[in-house]
Amino acid sequence: MTFGKFELDAVDTCLFGLDGGAMFGVVPKTLWSKAYHQGDEFNRIPLSARPLLIRFDERTILIDTGNGTKFNDKFAQIYNIDRDNSSIEKALERFDITYNDITDVILTHLHFDHAGGATTFRNGKLVPTFPNARYYVQKSHLKWAIHPSDKDKASFIRDDYEPLYAEGMLETLEDTGELYPGISLHTVFGHTNSMQLVKISDGRQSLLYCADLSPTHAHINIPFVMGYDNNPLLTIEEKKRIFAQAYEEKWILVFEHDAFIQASKIVATEKGFAAGESVEITKY
Ligand SMILES: [Zn+2]
Questions:
Q1: What pTM value is reported for the model?
Q2: How many beta carbons lie within 10 A of that of residue 125, not counting itself?
Q3: 109 CA to middle of ligand 1, Å?
Q4: Which of 266, 63, 75 is nearest to 277 (CA)?
Q5: Could you tell me the distance, in angstroms and rounded to a whole number, from the CA of residue 8 to the centre of ligand 1?
Q6: Please, what sign has the CA dihedral across residues 15, 17, 23, 27?
Q7: How far is the CA of 276 from the centre of ligand 1 (A)?
Q8: For 112-128, what is the mean pLDDT?
Q9: Distance 203 CA to ligand 1 centre (A)
Q10: In CATH, what class is 2-279?
Q11: Which sequence spans correspond to the domains of the chain?
Q12: What whole-number percentage of the chain has pLDDT above 90?
């Protein structure tokens, strides 16, 4: 979709699966199964790994990189990752973009389903996937990734980010605000320490890449918070604050993990906020 001066695309890499109970925290299955999906025989729900591509002027920016391809068979089985389609490079082909074309990679955070595609094996060597890009992450998040909580340490894999700083390609940000005119970063702390959300504004309208603040449209519902979150009460506060503004200002919210809906606005119902009509960023 064209959004002001920006050309935006949803880069669907592959579907994978996470435990539905873990994805919806304290919400009983009778509710989340109706709101999203009933789960497979292992109770896993289908999730997308959906980076966002932003093109304007000379920049070709990627937000997040999906699961990548570095994992072994056991890992692929646990998370039900569709190996043949998990490569971000392959997903970019439909937009006629090669790994050399990417100028910037904004990593919302370093959990493997977001940063897995940031590095890759090329000719047997582990390297940054996008050799001409600057990669961005919050400095305090990188610290957290290196010394994570026991709760989220299974989500961090050193091979996803170590080559980036070893090659001097990782820019660690100590503040938020505009990265480029119209593209701003906003930190939240409930899911993990210093996850950065990306807001794109064309002067009239805004679009928010929600990362794991609202991984699917069903998570617009305020108490639908992931069991994975380090600080669920903080997530609830952050959702209340951000979604109230998103509702008032009619933002489009992009859902990184929603297997069914790429994006939507927020509507207010008698039960609280919910996802409105779906917005298609890229036709598949
Ligand atoms: Zn995460």
A1: 0.96
A2: 8
A3: 7
A4: 266
A5: 22
A6: positive
A7: 24
A8: 96
A9: 30
A10: alpha beta
A11: 2-279
A12: 95
Regarding beta strands 263-269 and 252-254, do their DSSP bridges make them parallel or antiparallel, or are they unpaired?
antiparallel
Q: Is the pLDDT of residue 114 over 90?
A: yes
Task: List, for residues 201-220, the tens digit of each pLDDT value.
Answer: 998 999 999 999 999 999 99
Distance CA 110, CA 18 (A): 17
Report the share of the chain in percent with pLDDT over 70: 100
> What's the chain's length in residues?
284
Neighbours of ion ligand 1 (CB under 5 A): 111, 212
In the predicted model, what is the mean pLDDT of residues 167-193? 96
**Could you tell me which residues are beta bridge partners of residue 198?**
185, 209
Instruction: Return the pLDDT at 87.
Output: 94
Q: Is 96 exposed, middle or buried (0-12, 13-18, 19+ CB in 10 A)?
A: exposed
Measured distance CA(59)–CA(248) in Å, rounded: 30
Distances (CA, A) of 55 to 17, 63, 101, 139, 201: 30, 11, 11, 25, 14
User: For residues 75 and 81, what is the distance between their CA atoms, to the nearest angstrom?
Assistant: 8
Q: Cα(251) to centroid of ligand 1, in Å? A: 22
Instruction: Please tell me whether residue 134 adopts helix, strand or coil conformation.
Output: strand
For residue 28, pLDDT over 90 is answered with: yes
How far is it between the farthest Cα atoms of the chain? 56
**pLDDT computed for residue 27 by the predictor:** 97
